[in-house]
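Course assignment 3, question 2. Fill in each field.
Student: A.L.
Task: Predict the tertiary structure for the chain below.
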Amino acid sequence: MDRVLFVIGNAGKQLMRAQAVNSHNLANANTTGFQADMATFSPRVIKGAGFESRAYSVAGDNSTSFEKGQMERTGRTLDVAVNGNGWIAVQAPDGGEAYTRAGNLHVNINGQLMTRSENPVLGDSGPIVVPENQKLEIGSDGTISVRPLGQQPNTLSEVGRIKLVSPPAEELKKGADGLLRMRDGSDAPASSDVSLISGALESSNVNGVEAMVNMIGLARQFEISVKIMSTAKEMDERTTQIMNMS
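Answer field:
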């Protein structure tokens, strides 16, 4: 059997994987703070008799695009956008520390400061708890201040500070839950170089038009792969017929 079937069959498999990644990005084009995934591949040359003229692709781990999304002003007190390179520290479902740029926060019935995905926001000493208040403010350094019930308008009390981190991008890895973690399993140290913009959110860094163009291109490449497999089958059948005639 011609090796082309193995090569093009592998190509079809990897194109389907790339299409799944691209579709996931497109589905999250409007998700606040979403970081796009990128499918990665590396070539593997087929060894054997004759020229090494064929190679198939080997899938690697998905990488993440760390480009910044657009800033959108909301005016909402609990909306914050990370200014520059940095992340908001949150508690992951497994109890560990993880990072996100999605700053659409809220306070649950237990007073915990949470992300829209229901991950507790972390401070210097664990999840942040906000007491009942008449007014809440989040400063550019992550400091959370509230005006307690029944207090004067100019009375503000600091109740916590959001942990902001800025590890190098190459030390971060995105999990299936969409949160980023340190590759070595450690917790990134807090950074004073990261600041927040109150009353704003960062949109997804997915370019919807580009993702649609990629989807069409990947679909066409898959169709070409199927046609090549069909052509290889026809060539094999004709070869068999010629050998039977001899």
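Instructor remarks: The radius of gyration is 26 Å. The chain has a mean pLDDT of 88.
Grade: pending
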